[in-house]
Amino acid sequence: MPEPGNDGDLLPIERFYDLTLVSELSLSPDGERVAFVVEESEREADERRQSVCVVPADGSRSPHRLSRASDAGSPKWSPDGTRLGVLAARERDSELAVTDTDDDSEGDDAAAESEDTGDGSEADDEPKSQVWVFDLEVGGDARQVTDREEGVNEFDWGPESERIVVSARDPTDEEREHLEARREGEAPIETERLQHKFDGAGWLDTVTTYLFVIDVETRDKRRLDDAYGSGAYESITGLQPTWVSETEIAFLSNPLENPDDSAVMDLYLADAESGAVERITDGDLTVGTIEAAPAESETRLAFGADEPENWCIPTQVYAWDGESYESLTADLDRTLTRNASLCWIDDESLLTTIADEAHTRPCRVDTNGEVERVGGAIVDDASIAAVDAQGGTVALALSHPSEGLDVHTIGLDALDGSGDGETSSGKRGGKRDLQRVTALNDDLLEEEVMPECRRVSYESDGHEIDAIAYLPPEFDPSDPETHPLVVSIHGGPISYDSPEFSFEYGVLASRGYVVLCPNYRGGTSYGRAFAEELYGQWGSVEVEDIVRGIKHLVERGWADPDRVFGRGFSYGGIAQGYLVTQTDVLTAAAPEHGIYDLRSAFGTDDSHVRMEAEFGLPWEDEEGFRTSSSITQAGNIDTPLLVTAGGEDWRCPPSQSEQLYIAARKQGVEAKLLVYPDEHHNVGDPDRAIHRLKQLTAWYERHDPARGTEEE
Length: 712
Fold this sequence. Notes:
This protein is α+β, with helices and mostly antiparallel strands.
């Protein structure tokens, strides 16, 4: 590794192109192979590409890249372990083209689908996501199984490995005609939906998503007419089709009279043969992940669910025995992590992940309600990005601040407690038994220095607040020299920070910044009461906790109080709005994709259900909306602002950033507005990510008083 501390040791922002991320994991039924999704940059095309790879769980061979033709994801093994299904948007299978040419006997619907080659319309000529299946016994390229004109959203294997169920949009002739006109720019936007748009999807239409049962070999398909999606949260949860038995498929939908005005997603069971549908839950939950139980279990299935009116209540694991459902984690007071998997490890126990005091912890949940934290040593200094368990093996995507993001495996027994001894969590871990099976960023890590990470704690208003600090090279916490500080505020606010591999924090730390990530009140991982401290009163306790964290590092000699810079996306941007209107702690701020006027955001964003649940309606509770809108105190702004927005961000519309920017400029405060025209509520293509980082670091340098003195 290079010697840290010199100008030559700055992590070049352009090295973002060399970054490889890993997301989804899927273990084969025997636990011997891991399929996973890697995301890499294609520099010339300025795109992030996804590929599916497979690696032996014992690390005996290097990963093999299965998908090479185009983006692919959502890998799922057939129950017999011989095939791997993926979702991929790629050119149509030549076998289908030949079949369509030789046999036109399937009727008008098949002809319509074949004419546009599964792409929707001439104006929308990008390939749609379809199910492709790799036969891992025979080898060779994947075979296309579906040919839906609007693509496939989700799929699951039937227990006999011969059928799949998919969720897919199925427009009527009238809807198809309107979609084609819209895509060709010949039709106006028309809607009568209350949930009229959604971030990443744009303006929503009325096309219904149904479940289809498909024979993998013949491609014969049958629509289950009563198994369809509905509701404001369908765009978030999907239908989650999950095969429960040879004849039963679980899925999600909203049955209420006005589904676009509710966060409810109920659990249903559809008969794969007759199409009959049974409702399982009672309109009291927002159900997310579903996992069918083993055939030997007295439980039929497990699912994760939220309370639709109050997301501060932890996401819980529920079990349904065929007659009733109950929470298995109601007494835990910890939430499942976002996108947590539910992995059956025997007929009475599941493995999942919870947010627990700024850790992402593996957790064993028994159907009798007993809960045990496991693998403590593994997550003391890292985060779990994904997990799966099969055949006595556990696969983990571990994110470590200085060691990178890689796939690891460990035996279930070792994870349960035969590992390294007691840890800070009081639970035995299995760190020494971990097997790293990928080396995704080793080239980058051999040439660049990534930051060390420390946990820090401080008191704020009688609460102990935990934070994660990323440190510059050669920084000595016990004998520090003051450094410039970036306070990085997590979004949500229903979220939390834990140690992780972050290219952005590497860029900042290599330039001499200490990065502080405070787990302020209103976030998760500390239970319901901690999260509810902020509920309905944004701009209050989180401001106090963030300010106190800054002062704590100043008091410890880590941070220079005159060189404190704000960073944060979504609620991290929103919180900066409060910081610059209520305090003077920031030397310069960089709020990204935030909301600063809750009143004008209501109805122009995609979150009216959530906002009404927390704040009411703006014409009925004007005071609540006003006091939680930083724009109402914009006259106090004297902090230079770099305000960033996405032109197609419907979570935090760009008009919000315009308002904050204009408010600052009207008062003569230095400000810059940065809008990425086609961007949603995320950081998208590589060039945009690199441009953003360059803008961010340049803004901090421009307003750093120490740098200004040096230049003079």
